[in-house]
Amino acid sequence: MQGENMYTVVGLGNPGPKYQKTRHNVGQMVIDELVSRVGTKLSDHRQSNTRAASARIGVSPGTPGEQVILGVSKSYMNTSGGPVKALMGYFNAPVDTLLVVHDELDLPFGTLKLKRGGGEGGHNGLKSISQSLGNKNYIRLRFGVGRPPGRQDPADFVLAEFSPSERKELPFLISDAADAVVDVLEHGLETAQMRLHTA
User: Fold this and answer.
1) Cα–Cα distance measured from residue 8 to residue 54, given in angstroms and rounded to the nearest whole number
2) What's the domain range around 65?
3) Is residue 2 in some structural domain?
4) Is 102 a residue of the active site?
């Protein structure tokens, strides 16, 4: 199961039922969707303090699909880097095949953007990953959650659940995000970006 072409897809969030439905955990929601699609489940991976699964995703007619590791950290958001690094180390996965799905305050709710590298935009999960890896050259799928209303603290906003109107749209957006991940796996980042950003 080791190889340079195998992607590691990680969804960011906080552990435990208290945070399960919050904006900050939308990355983990996308992983749950991908896991559900392939009929597997995440299991404790003690060597990395993650929950992870190996799967083949993006099955096209006549092909077995792309081998991928799906994972979520069992630590809190601001210490995501250690578990992600350990998971990648266990599978000998290079940084350029890491795809991180995360919430993004700087995009309107429901907007999806793919990019490689760049800054972290104040996102503590991304900061932890970049610091732990000593490298920023990984792929990010940014899931827009929008800015907090009025003077609400951004930290409180992302740790709150989606609004009732957002919750109605959320399943469709999570499905779209999972589709974007599959597109990267099947066709590469540039093609996936072009499709996603011009849709």
Assistant:
1) 9
2) 7-197
3) no
4) no
Q: Is residue 76 one of the residues assigned to a domain?
A: yes
125-183: per-residue pLDDT in tens? 999 999 999 999 999 999 999 999 888 999 999 999 999 999 999 999 999 999 999 99
3-state secondary structure of 103: strand
Residue 104: give its domain's CATH number: 3.40.50.1470
- The answer to whether residue 1 sits within a structural domain is no
- What gap in Å lies between CA 152 and CA 150, rounded to an integer? 6
From 24, 45, 102, 123, the catalytic residue:
24
Mind giving me the DSSP string for 73-96?
ESS-GGG-HHHHHHHHHHTT--GG
Report angle CA 25, 28, 31 to the nearest 5 degrees.
160
Domains of the chain: total: 1
Task: Provide the 10 A C-beta neighbour count for residue 3.
Answer: 11
Per DSSP (E only), the strands in 25-65 are 43-45, 50-57
Would you say residue 145 lies in a domain?
Answer: yes
Q: What is the spatial distance between Cα 161 and Cα 25, in angstroms, rounded to a whole number?
A: 9
The 10 Å Cβ neighbour count of residue 151 is: 5
- For residue 62, the model assigns a pLDDT of 61
61 pLDDT tier (thresholds 50, 70, 90): low
Token reading at 182 = 């599959």
What is the pTM assigned to this prediction? 0.94
Maximum pairwise Cα distance, the chain:
53
